[in-house]
């Protein structure tokens, strides 16, 4: 592993450039955010919410938990083959919005979603949409690794089998191997595929969950704080994997680590108290935020 890459995870104040297209940005004398021009009381989203060729488009999305208005008028595009990071303090709505993108909020009692979210131009909240294939197209990797209580092989094979993606065992074998290779796990598990996935280390379990997700050929991968329970070395492996996967998939990651957002993403969206405050290129968000709330969060005044 690249030594500098590992150091970046352990010592985020350093500014070495990691592998991949994203460039880490940490405030220094030369890059401290300029004085933002949009006041704290403004709640309209600042920045460009659209991209030229979006895989997903969200417009005026509102989420209610009973009487609580949790997410307020969020609009943003998710581009093809890009990594978008959602940042913001706890309870700001970033994970709530992430779960809207593959209708995971449908499983929450009392949750109501309004607005429009489309995948390749089709409304995912249309009553005719079957959420099972939708969640294969828009896969989810959760905060805590959650391998099935099955073998390593069966963890990856389960999705392709139930979705009818393969017809023969040799095709399934090839797909399992390809998915584990893309997740950077094959060399570590190829001689014990029949052993339980729950017996792997935390970092390996999370990569197994990523292999399980990509085995069904999704269009978009959602990641809800995928490294929060991992050590720095395992985190570095996941971040390298995110960079590799972005060559083929659109990825949306929720993270509390601004250093991680800077390392892995091309665009960043800042959420605050249910509002999408600012969207822009990751470098612009971290070096010259336009909104005072974004500047306050980036510079550590709150969060």
Characterization of this structure:
This protein is α/β, with parallel strands linked by helices. The protein has a domain at 149-216. Helix content is 32%, strand content 22%. It contains 11 helices and 10 strands. The strands form 2 sheets. It has a 6-stranded mixed sheet with strand order 6-7-8-3-9-10, with helices on both faces. Helix 8 links the parallel strand 7 and strand 8. Helix 1 (3-10) packs across helix 8 (232-245), helix 4 crosses helix 5 and helix 5 packs across helix 7 (202-214). It is globular. The model is unreliable at 1-21 (pLDDT under 50).
Largest sheet: 6 strands, mixed
Ends distance = 32 Å
Number of strands: 10
- Overall pLDDT level: 89
Low-confidence stretches are 1-21
Strand order of the largest sheet: 6-7-8-3-9-10
What is the rounded Rg?
Answer: 19 Å
Structural class: alpha/beta
Helix content: 25-40%
Write the element-wise H/E pattern from the N-terminal end onward. HEEEHEEHEHHHHEHEHEEHH
Count of alpha and pi helical runs: 11
Indicate the overall shape.
globular
Strand content: 15-25%
Topology, element by element:
Layout: H1 3-10, E1 54-65, E2 68-79, E3 83-87, H2 94-100, E4 111-119, E5 122-123, H3 131-137, E6 138-141, H4 152-162, H5 169-182, H6 186-189, H7 202-214, E7 220-224, H8 232-245, E8 250-254, H9 258-264, E9 267-272, E10 275-281, H10 282-287, H11 292-298
């Amino acid at each position: 592993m690249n030594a500098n890459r590992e150091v970046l995870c352990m010592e985020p104040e350093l500014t070495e450039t990691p592998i991949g297209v994203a460039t880490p940005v940490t405030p220094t004398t030369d890059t401290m955010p300029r004085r933002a021009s949009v006041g704290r009381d403004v709640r309209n989203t600042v920045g460009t919410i659209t991209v030229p060729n979006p895989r997903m488009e969200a417009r005026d999305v509102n989420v209610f938990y009973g009487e609580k208005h949790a997410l307020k008028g969020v609009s943003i595009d998710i581009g093809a083959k890009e990594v978008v990071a959602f940042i913001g303090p706890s309870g700001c709505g970033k994970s709530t919005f992430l779960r809207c993108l593959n209708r995971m909020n449908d499983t929450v009692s009392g949750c109501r979603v309004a607005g429009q979210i489309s995948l390749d131009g089709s409304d995912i909240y249309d009553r005719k949409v079957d959420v099972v294939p939708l969640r294969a197209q828009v896969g989810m990797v959760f905060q805590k690794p959650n391998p099935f209580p099955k073998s390593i092989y069966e963890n990856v094979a389960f999705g392709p089998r139930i979705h009818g993606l393969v017809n023969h065992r040799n095709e399934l074998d090839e797909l399992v191997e390809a998915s584990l290779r893309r997740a950077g796990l094959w060399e570590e598990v190829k001689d014990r595929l029949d052993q339980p996935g729950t017996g792997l280390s935390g970092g390996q379990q999370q990569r197994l969950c990523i292999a399980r997700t990509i085995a069904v050929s999704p269009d978009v991968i959602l990641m809800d704080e995928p490294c929060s329970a991992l050590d720095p070395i395992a985190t570095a492996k996941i971040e390298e994997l995110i960079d590799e996967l972005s060559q083929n998939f659109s990825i949306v990651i929720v993270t509390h680590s601004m250093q991680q957002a800077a390392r892995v993403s091309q665009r960043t969206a800042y959420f605050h108290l249910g509002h999408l405050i600012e969207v822009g290129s990751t470098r612009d968000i971290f070096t010259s935020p336009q909104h005072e709330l974004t500047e306050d969060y980036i510079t550590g005044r709150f969060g």
